[in-house]
Amino acid sequence: MKTKTIFDIGIGSLHLRVPSTVYPHEDALRNATVPEVDVHIPKRASTSNSLLAALPPKEYRQLSGDLEQVALNYGEVLYEPGKQIKQVYFPNDSIVSLLTLVDRHQALEVGLVGREGMVGVPLALEISVSPVRALVQGTGTAMRMKAAAFLKAFRQSHALRRELHHYTYSLMAQITQTAACNRFHVVEARLARWLLMTHDRMRANTFQLTQEFLSQMLGVRRVGVTKAARALRNLGLISYSRGNITILDRNGLEAACCTCYEIVKDMHEAA
After folding, report:
1. Which of 241, 223, 228 is nearest to 188 (CA)?
2. Is the pTM of this model over 0.85?
3. Residue range 196-210, pLDDT digits in tens
4. pLDDT tier at 27 (50, 70, 90 boundaries)?
5. Are 60 and 49 in contact (CB under 8 A)?
6. 101 Cβ partners below 8 Å, 6+ apart?
7. What is the DSSP string of 62-80?
8. CA angle at residue 215 from 107 to 178, to 5 degrees?
9. CA atoms within 13 A on the CB side of 76
10. Who contacts 1 (Cβ-Cβ below 8 Å, separation ≥6)?
11. Are the C-beta atoms of residues 261 and 193 closer than 8 Å to each other?
12. Dihedral of the CA atoms 170, 172, 176, 181 (nearest 10)?
């Protein structure tokens, strides 16, 4: 009996390693045991990002070779206004704030990106420069992709273009509604809305947030943040101490926030 070298058989994403054996006699063939088979079926890499998860498995696999999971830390700056976008990020359990700068030092949040979307949307519009500062608000992980690889995939994948077009619409809706909210609604209602949006994306009840950070997010002085947080705490909706906010009553927060929260949520679900 002679045994040939083991060879591979590839069927799509299924690969078999089968010993190729030559049996010289019919009796030997009849009495032979079933050869051992090593089966390798590559699995789709798991992702908590809903935009990536919405892609068909084949198109996601084509992207996966260029995706790298990275840790994003609270306070980390991913982009600055006017600077080139070198990577895009698909958050898993992290959150990134989009800030517009006024007089080069004052910042105001205009958008929030979490597991539902992508940081670096201008690249989907063939624009390689960021108009905002992208600042990590919630520590966690994200799938990172180099700009050149993203543009290639975006131009080739109809499904990726479709998902990003829908997400871009919902992000635009969020930005425009946030602008109106910052102008017309009181700080307590805006803080409640912002906490609900953060809770939706992080799926955690406790957030690491300083007064300075919140003042940037809401565009008010620290004393205004303190007053708004105290009002929500006195209602039993949150607890706040040493840079951490814990949501105690989500239903109460929904009742205390402005209508902007539901408007933005409905637009995202309709996209």
Report:
1. 228
2. no
3. 999 999 888 998 888
4. low
5. no
6. 81, 107, 133
7. HHHTT-EEEEE-TT-EEE-
8. 65
9. 15
10. 21, 22, 23, 24, 28
11. yes
12. 40
